[in-house]
Amino acid sequence: MTLAQVQVNCGCSRADHFAIQHWPDGVVVYDDTSGSLHALTPVAGEAFSLIQTRQASDARSLAQAMGLVEPAAEELDMLESLLVQFESMGLIECTQG
Amino acid sequence: MALSPAELAHRLRTDGVFLRIPPFVMHIRSPIPVVAQGLHALYPDHEVLTGEDVFADFHVTVKPKRHLLKTVCVFEMDGFQPFTPLAYGEAFAFLEWGMNWCVTSYCHTWITVHSAVLERGGRVLILPAPPGSGKSTLCAALMLSGWRLLSDEMALLDPVSGLVTPSPRPVSLKNESIEVIRGRAPTASFGPVARDTMKGTVAHMRISADSLARADHCARPAWVVFPQFKKEAPLTVQERPKPSALVELASNSFNHHVHGRTGFQALAALVDECGCHDLQYGHLDEAIAWFEALAATPA
Fold it and tell me: Which strand (E) or helix (H) includes residue B35?
């Protein structure tokens, strides 16, 4: 069962704790709390910024906010995978239901 | 240093020597002859401060410790011994490593990054790299080619101004690099050779007069180059993506976490303003030629 099927809601409760440096070839996220750095691809950086600023909260709303009019299942899977990775990195929190 | 070898050795054995090693003053004491030999060979132009009110940033001592079957040496800062003892013959190298430790452990005014740092035409080159990457060999060869040495060991980055503060001290060379650099500069001064250290054979090379004379001149970083020596390999250079450069620069920093977000932003600004490259080299002359061409590019 994928995140989309179980209706997850993702957010960034520590949005103010992250500083982001943007470049065309990727972004680096700095976590004030742990002092850790995370290098993200341009797409991942865009997705994280949208979650951080509450413009999206799941794969489908991410796709929409990123301008994907009719996202393919594969694209939604990739965005779901990104959310899982963000959560494992401690950048966001996801809840079901 | 206007002290004779005998006078220097006497002072080191007794009250110690206050040596101005920009931007610091080190109060050094040691009864071990090789320490005096090393300081006399490698710090001849550094200023010895005298007077009762001289302030020292660090008070360091390298002294012998007798065991039943051998004598070792210990490093102390303010009476604290942060390291396990080393072989007696490593006393001078121990002093150099200990002084590095003092700076990286206590000087948090700057963001310190493990790297060699040089300057040409007002632009600073930062060479962050792990041991064995050929960083110090490259650093020594660049200094011999006319680049100003800011440090062989660490960049002292001011997080507010973005400038690098010089801290020019002898270049630490290891193993084959010692003869490689001796071959390029037969008249260069070297300090005592320490053999069988945990890094192999170690010797320090005296810095150029220009590097010391301009030690108070801070400068702005222009390039971050990650060097990697691979024997006989042809020279290859690739642009390093900025996100990767920032993460690696931070991983080479001793204390960016102490500065928190300000430290991150300072390193990010440095990477943003610098050209970032990966350089693999197998021949010093090829690498030096590439750096000369880099320095010749318009600012």
Answer: helix B33-42
Residues 6+ apart with CB under 8 A from B168: B22, B149, B150, B151, B207, B211, B212, B215
CB contact under 8 A, B246 and A32: no
Q: How far is A68 from chain B (nearest CA, A)?
A: 26
Question: Under CATH, what is the fold of the domain B111-169+207-296?
Answer: Phosphoenolpyruvate Carboxykinase; domain 3 (3.90.228)
Give the model confidence (pLDDT) of B25-58 as tens digits.
Answer: 999 999 999 999 999 999 999 999 998 889 999 9
B245 to chain A, any CB pair closer than 8 A? The answer is: no
Share of chain B above pLDDT 90, in %: 90
Q: What is the pTM for the complete model shown?
A: 0.93
Closest partner CB to A28 (pick from B257, B260, B268) = B268
Low-confidence ranges of chain A (pLDDT < 50): 3-4
| Helix, strand, or coil (residue B247) | helix
CA distance B242 to chain A (A): 7
Chain B CB contacts of A39 below 8 Å = 243-244, 246-247
CB contacts of B246 in chain A (<8 Å) are: 21, 28, 37, 39
What's the rounded Cα separation, in Å, for the pair B130 and B117? 14
ipTM for the complex shown = 0.88
Instruction: Give B99-146 pLDDT, tens digit per residue.
Output: 999 999 999 999 999 999 999 999 999 999 888 888 999 999 999 999
- Dump pLDDT digits (tens) for B12-31: 999 999 999 999 999 999 99
Where are chain B's structural domains? 5-106, 111-169+207-296
DSSP track, chain A: --TTTTTEEEE-TTGGGEEEEEETTEEEEEETTT--EEEE-HHHHHHHHHHHTTS--SHHHHHHHTT-SS--HHHHHHHHHHHHHHHHTTS-EEEE-
Q: Nearest Cβ partner of A26 from B243, B256, B264?
A: B243
- B101 at interface of A, judged by CB pairs closer than 8 A: no
